[in-house]
Amino acid sequence: MEENKEQTAAPKRSRAALLKRGAWFFLLASVAAGLISLNYFRLLSIDFSGEGRVYALLTMFGHFAMWGAAGWLVFCAPWALAFPRRPAVAGTLSVAAGTAGLLVVSLDTFVYGLYRFHVYNSFVLEMLFGDGAAGIFTFTAGQIALMVFGAAALCALGVGLWFGARLVSSRCGGKTLAAASGLLLAMLVASHLMHAYYSANGSRSVYQIAAAYPGHFPLTANRFLIRNGFVDPEQVREKIRVNAGSALDYPRAPLVPAQKPTKNILVIFLDSWNFRTFDPEVMPNVCAFAEKAQVFSEHYSGDHGTRTGVISFFHGLPGLYFNAIRDGGVSAAFIDVLLAQNYEMKILATASLANPPFTRTIFKNVPEDALRYNFFEGVSAAEGDVRVADAWLEWTKNYAAVPAAQRRPFFGFLFFDELHAMTLPKDAEKKFPTDWENPRYELLGKDTDPTPFFNLYKNDAYWLDKQLKRVFDDLRERGLLENTVVILTGDHGQEFNEDGNNTWGHGSGFSTHQLKVPFVLFDAALPPKKYAHWTAHYDVSVTLLQNYLHVGNAPSDYSVGKNLFDATPRAWLLVGHPEQWGVVEKDRVTHVRLGAYEIFDRNYRFLPEAKLNAPVFREALEQAREFYKK
What we know:
It contains 21 helices and 14 strands. α8 crosses α9. The chain is α/β, with parallel strands linked by helices. The longest helix has 35 residues. It has an eight-stranded mixed sheet, with helices on both faces.
């Protein structure tokens, strides 16, 4: 009887000992991974503040402890419970998983330091180990020897930690293990709470540190903190302005006009503008205005969303730089030149310019009294658009009242929201028949007839066209149009399942209908002309700085674009933002999200046999890092 009890108890002791040893192993491995992660800070230009140091310490160990706990649950616990008399099974799996984790973290510090992409992205793995790897990464014999030695050392470390865990487990009781685990859990929770608070308060170092860690999705609570008075958006904007600092080398050289600019500039954005509505039947006043302007029929935004679509226009940089722009409070070089040249500024938007953080980036240096937004508070977006037009007309009235000899040139930015919100006024003319009075997203599917929805959208465009006519007519009647460059475009497109892929709206893919937008540039000094070459938002700041602000710098000092009027063929376009991005080529789109990539044709049909275009991706990766400080 006693012998049977002993036989029953032996596996229980084996299980408990193996589980405890495995827990210590993954705990020690997570600490080792945290120490290896210090290499991120050696390779990156991170501006540490007081809270940044604390946040880095908490995240360094808390974040990797979370992954260590996951490793224990997957590679140790089930196998120790299933095979208590065969500890080699759980031990081998644990050592293999822990060592692999250390190797990945070590490799990731170098890859992220070079390209700002984490190594677990499938496209990065494809470039490292796929057919085109030799065309992207080249290493000397010395570098290869160093990598082999480093990998061997990490493998030895993994094995050593397993034996070290045995020693620690034999000398430390369960309470010690619980205390150590609790400490790491507290560090994890504290790091997320710190991120929520300090990121909302504009801490540059916290933003930068959070972005460096692989598999890290920190807590944010901006709206909650603002709504409950823990964060003052204007104080944050001022803090970012005063404490400006950036990981970017942007612009790369001072931008100094060769002569005093005299042209007024007005930029008008329509949120979510589908290019099919750029048609005389839908927007007759816009099209009549375009008949006297430069029209670029193949113009693309830098993203399928507002945040980085607008950034791509003003900064001239891909949205992959967004985190660095936001974290460093990087203003747009184009706007800063306008301010340096004493332009009078007026920025008006129906929706918010604080979130997305345009007041903290693009317009950071613009005087507060020149910024007005959130016109839709308490009313519909349509009414907000009317208020934007009213405010602009009131401003031009006052501007035109000043004698011409005493006026400064002006820069205006009007951002209308109705095409995005689709809040058509009840009394608006409904030119295009539909029984939809507002978007009915719950009805959308692959087989949904898009006509009622698109007709609703066209009615909104027809209504908005009249507001734009007010702006154009006002400029003309006040004698301002002759000396004003007017740009009319969208922040991104809007899809109505044109390709039959059950894709609606924007933000889901990099199809033509989500990226392509109308683009009109009016300059009374230029004869009307239409252009069919491929242009992008990246090209706009180059054109305005070169042609109208007389800046002689090479475009590569401040943009990835070229002059709009330069018809040199463009082979590809880097689009998107840090969470998902893509490379658009003439015949296909490579879409990268959640660490994986898919390749589609230009009608967004999946191409299962397609391979990465290694030379293009190498160029795209270089473009995504060329404005970082070396």
